[in-house]
Amino acid sequence: MNSEERFKELLDRYLDGNATPGEAQIVERWFEQGGDTGKRDLQLSETEKKLLLENIRRQTRGPVIPMVWRWAAAAIVTGAVVMGGILVRSSKKVSPIGLASVVTGKGEIKKMALPDGSVVWLNANSVLSYCVEFKQRRELKLSGEALFDVAEDKAHPFVVTTSDSVRTEVLGTVFNVTSRGETSVAVLSGKVQVGKAGVGAAILTRQQSVRYSGGTLARIDAPAEIANWTKGEWVYNNMRIGDLMRLLNDQYNITVRNKHTKGDGLQTGLNVNFNRRQPPEDIVSIFCALAGCHYKKTDTTTFEVFN
Predict the structure, then answer these.
(1) In terms of domains, do 176 and 222 share one?
(2) Which of 11, 38, 39 is nearest to 23 (CA)?
(3) Going by DSSP bridges, is the β-strand pair 209-213/182-189 parallel, antiparallel, or unpaired?
(4) Taking 80 as the threshold, does the pLDDT of residue 10 lie above it?
(5) Which of 48, 163, 177, 249 has its CA 20 to 30 A from that of 196?
(6) Is residue 46 over pLDDT 90?
């Protein structure tokens, strides 16, 4: 699948209302900068164009007339789709955003080198965006999960911001960021500062972690093998039902419905680890054996967990 086809899938998810906040941001920025639907793989029907306009009007709560004009003038915009996301270059008549984005699908992991020499592993079902002038402005936005091995550059701090505005700043280190409903940061080496406006900040060093949830930033225990997902292995300290649901959705495109009376409080109470060689039913079975629950397979892509 080429990058234009991948972006068309992202666009379809947006039109269906199933895009993540990070994916929606990519589509809206692409549209604002011209939205070249003349490309073979990005052509939209009149109904789809109308739906896209309505979605963006609803999100921005403002007029979209300038956007419509840019769309009509798309012939003067040079679109360049890269790395599964989109990099938009425009003429001087349209103010360029200079944004590159990388998108991964269900069960897909990407390893990439950033322009400053830093290395990123992007986990499944994630979006990473950054400025194309990255060496001068090392700022990234993440929706999903990524492992960063940062090249040291004291003159240009490396900053990762998640969709809930949690900000992680480093100079040179290896750290993991997960942002799926709540954000957690774990340091494998070096030192980072994690903070959010109005909440405060924490300094983390090797083997230290924090989680932002419910309006607070709290230190948590994270497994030493937290970055093993880059090798297709997943390690959890006291796996929660939410962890199970995200793992199966992101890696296997499987839905887990929680019908248990404990709700979000359902958890294993023990450390568990899984790997990509295991079928999803094995993972659900082990979780339920440890958490004291039952499950059934309601169809080929859905499990239900209950008392």
Answers:
(1) yes
(2) 11
(3) antiparallel
(4) no
(5) 249
(6) no
Residue 237 and residue 138 share a domain: no
Among 48, 1, 58, 50, CA closest to 24: 58
Q: What is the pTM of this model?
A: 0.66
Q: At 226, list the tokens.
A: 């937290």
182 and 278: one domain? no
- Please report, for the domain that includes residue 169, its CATH number: 2.60.120.1440
List the single range of 14-18, 260-264, 272-276 with lowest mean pLDDT: 14-18
A 10 A CB-CB count for 115 gives 15
8 A C-beta contact, residue 265 and residue 225: no
Beta 127-131 vs 99-103: how paired, if at all?
antiparallel
Same domain for 245 and 215: no
Q: Mapped to the 3 state alphabet, what secondary structure does the chain carry?
A: CCHHHHHHHHHHHHHHCCCCHHHHHHHHHHHHCCCCCCCHHHCCCHHHHHHHHHHHHHHHCCCCHHHHHHHHCHHHCEEECCCCCCEEECCCCCCCCCEEEEECCCCCCEEEECCCCCEEEECCCCEEEEECCCCCCCEEEEEEEEEEECCCCCCCCEEEEECCCCEEEECCCEEEEEEECEEEEEEEECEEEEEECCCEEEEEECCCEEEEECCEEEEECCCCCHHHHHHCEEEECCCEHHHHHHHHHHHHCCEEEECCCCHHHCECCCCEEEECCCCHHHHHHHHHHHHCCEEEEEECCEEEEEC
Question: Residue 204 forms beta bridges with which residues?
Answer: 192
CB 195 within 8 A of CB 211: no
Among 191, 210, 226, identify where a domain stops. Answer: 226
Bigger pLDDT: 161 vs 20: 161
Domain assignment present for residue 261? The answer is: yes
Domain count, the chain: 3
User: Does a structural domain hold residue 93?
Assistant: no
Structural domain containing residue 35: 3-82
Extract the tokens encoding 129: 């965006």
98 lies in some domain: no
